[in-house]
Amino acid sequence: MAMARAFRLRNSLSSSPLLHDTAIKSLLLNVGCSSWLYCQLSSPISFHSSAKFDLTDLTQPHLWYPNARKKKRNVFLHMGPTNSGKTYHALKRLEASSSGLYCGPLRLLAWEVARRLNNAKVPCNLITGQERDEIDGAKHTSLTVEMADVSGEYQCAVIDEIQMLGCKTRGYAFTRALLGICSDELHVCGDPASVPLIQRILEVTDDVVQVRYYERLSPLVPLNVPLESFANVKKGDCIVTFSRQDIYKLKKKIEAGGKHLCSVVYGSLPPETRTKQATLFNDERSEMDVLVASDAIGMGLNLNISRIIFSTMKKFDGESTRNLTVPEIKQIAGRAGRYGSKFPVGEVTCLKGSDLPLLHSSLNAASPVLERAGLFPTFDLLSLYSRMHSTKDFHPVLEKFLAKAKLSSDYFISDCEEMLKIAVVVDELPLALYDKYLFCLSPVDMNDDISAQGLIQFAESFSRKGLVRLQEIFTPGTLQVPKTQNQLKELESIHKVLDLYVWLSFRMEESFPDREVAASQKSMCSLLIEEFLERSGGYRPFRKGQPTSQWLQKKYQKREMQKYFPEINVESD
């Protein structure tokens, strides 16, 4: 059956003047033909059939990864709640392996695993969309899941937070890693709610699947009494809310009481700043003994939290304001009482008594079983589809392809609303389809005016000259410490634009040559944001009377030096 289907593919594609042998071969490899069948189909044999290959048939995505299908993988599912040691056991296997990958959902997690392995004398590279840190002799790599290598072979691989394969925007990257990584051992960590779906998906791969369940290592106690007043906040508390504006309102209220200073963590803060804020909160010597945060604390940061306090049980998800889901509540609440920290017992409550029933029922409930995993077509499929329809406009190609896509019941097409927004912009420019595809994949928030304008200017400059110099839209040395919330938000957006430039520079290196300048200005943005946060809380590192600009420059220089000389203390003068 597969042979006949592939022969019909070659015949129907060959009859189109738009398709060349290289395109046929590319597609054959991506739909998962074996090497032998690929060679047969590459031979000059003519077959006559009126049937046409359906490029929109995505019902067998496991065949997109022939390298992984050559191997009978041993897949270990490490399943349990937050703070259960599941990832720890998977990482121990990775550390003991001769070669391996770690795939995490966040840069912060990739950083942490790379640091851990290198400290354990296991040389480990770091690869994210915006970073490449290659270590001499390294056979291990820690990366964000979108960067997962499906072409190489490894003894061991770890995929963290696998329940995110159900994420409507990023689920496809976890599905790709699960199906595509070629390793003798594949260790998958996450919520037990993902087990039945993973087992169904891997039924057709001939992998051997074992499930290991874990229990939480330290107690988590849901309190029956709400906080009611911010006067009741104590050291080690984390107050959770879901908008940037509310985070700063709560920080101001708590600090107005005169007993505490607050660190803050939320998604639009640069990752480096989030890490610094977490470090200040964790440090016994710091005055920042309370944390105000969004659900960004749910993964990626090690935090010494005594008590989680939900200021609200509702969040705006981009479309509507809704109650938090059971998995969201469990993920956030589970951050209290980290095993081995100074708070061995975690507590969780709400600001208002009316929210306690939802908190308690959610913590006692099982997470809903995941039904489907995210999927997204490869560029090769979209490219061939565009040739068959004689267009280089990416928006109509993507829209039509997804409208006709055929899926099995275990998959859904990942939400590509952001990609379609970008496609409308880049289709106005004289760009090749692949370049349009890259811009559409880039990490840009089109709802952020400054970020969107940055992408548009980068794309326009690239289409005109094939070269994008950073100084065309940004003048280094002009950044300042923000004085207002609006200026802070603007600086966060500038950081996103610089981050976008670095991301593009790794994919179009000759066209985006100012990576080092962009990276250094990103670091300066982070320091300026940190300075704003320190000033707003009344917290000051000792500076020996230096003006702020001199102090920041010296601090930045030390941070750069610390990359190469870890013994340097960034905070000391």
Automatic annotation (TrEMBL):
Keywords: ATP-binding, Helicase, Hydrolase, Mitochondrion, Mitochondrion nucleoid, Nucleotide-binding, Nucleus, Transit peptide. Residues 226-383 form the Helicase C-terminal domain. It is found in: Mitochondrion matrix, Mitochondrion nucleoid; Nucleus. Its cofactor is Mn(2+); Mg(2+). Homodimer; in free form. Component of the mitochondrial degradosome (mtEXO) complex which is a heteropentamer containing 2 copies of SUPV3L1 and 3 copies of PNPT1. The lineage of its organism: Eukaryota, Viridiplantae, Streptophyta, Embryophyta, Tracheophyta. SMART domains: HELICc (SM00490). Its main location: mitochondrion. It comes from the Eukaryota. This is RNA helicase. GO terms for molecular function: ATP binding; hydrolase activity; RNA helicase activity. It catalyses: ATP + H2O = ADP + phosphate + H(+). GO terms for cellular component: mitochondrial degradosome; mitochondrial nucleoid; nucleus. GO terms for biological process: mitochondrial RNA 3'-end processing.
